[in-house]
Amino acid sequence: MRKHARYVKEDLCTACGRCAEKCPVDVPDEFEMGLANRKAIYSYFDQGVPAAFTIDREHCIYLEKQKCGVCLRFCDIGAIDFEQQDETVTLEVGAIIVAVGYDCFDPTPMGEYGFGRHPDVITSLQLERLTSSAGPTGGHVCRPSDGGHARRIGFIQCVGSRDRRNSPYCSAVCCMYATKAAILAAEHDPEVRSTIYYMDLRAGGKGFQEYLRRAREMYDVAYIRGRVAEVVAGKEHRLSIRYEDTDTGWLGEGTADLVVLCTALVPSAGIGDLARRLGVDLDAYGFVASDPLSPVQASVPGIYACGYCREPLDIPDSVTGGSAAAAKAFKALTGARE
């Protein structure tokens, strides 16, 4: 494995944040999905382990031009180390569990939805950060265009999913997380009203139908079975959502302050290279292939797969798969010792 240089000594850094306060460089924050900025020296996630900062080599002025060095001057405990180098770490293991997750489909090429053209058209993962109390707006659902509160939210389902042009499969989680996000937004601000435009509601898990009923009856979430044709700019920071109601064939138009695209979840970008290195097979969609009768077993003995890299799964099923993969690996290692 390659361990990238952190340029910060993990055993000395206390994550006090003084270095980041003094850093002059602003960079879009990947964890906040570009809704906020971070510094060139930063902590990717406040609750991450180890609790130490890292320096972004692509944006650090010192590493690029040998200038600045503000973090070095203001770190009283001497945790900054610009001499660190990448390391190659070799591990001898008896089993491997592949759990590399997924990537979000980029909806930019689907121009009909206006993503990248209208600032108030965002993805579901961006909304997740907006509704988080630890997010860039402290849980307030605000329009990126002007910071105003979004009172009407429109969710468009299956953006890139169940689509022959992109991902023909169902991403499995979008119906329920859109409902959860609509409830969270309404709990934070009772004036918020959400409309979910869906192809089909796929809510077959335990308690899912009750959750949908709760959203409708307690939070006034509206569900429209239809196909959205386009999202266009309206008046007074509003967006117009033009759609066909597939139950009646009626052409309708809704309005929203904020449009949320529930995008497809796709195999992570590096899964192909990883599969080649490990010698495991991928299925037709790019997920790790497994035996239907032993779902966490990859095509190579001693290698197991769990979570979304195996197939579209929600959190409970991912937890189950992770436990199964750990148990399989433990059994294999125990047998090897015997």
UniProtKB/TrEMBL annotation:
**InterPro entries per UniProt:** 4Fe4S_Fe-S-bd, 4Fe4S_Fe_S_CS, FAD/NAD-bd_sf, HdrA-like
Q: Which domain of life is it from?
A: Bacteria
Cofactor names:
FAD
> Could you tell me which SUPFAM superfamilies the record lists for this protein?
4Fe-4S ferredoxins, FAD/NAD(P)-binding domain
Record domain 4Fe-4S ferredoxin-type: where: 4-34, 51-85
Q: Which family does it belong to?
A: Belongs to the HdrA family.
Q: What is this protein called?
A: 4Fe-4S ferredoxin-type domain-containing protein
Q: Which organism is it from?
A: candidate division TA06 bacterium DG_24
What lineage is this protein's organism placed in? Bacteria, Bacteria division TA06
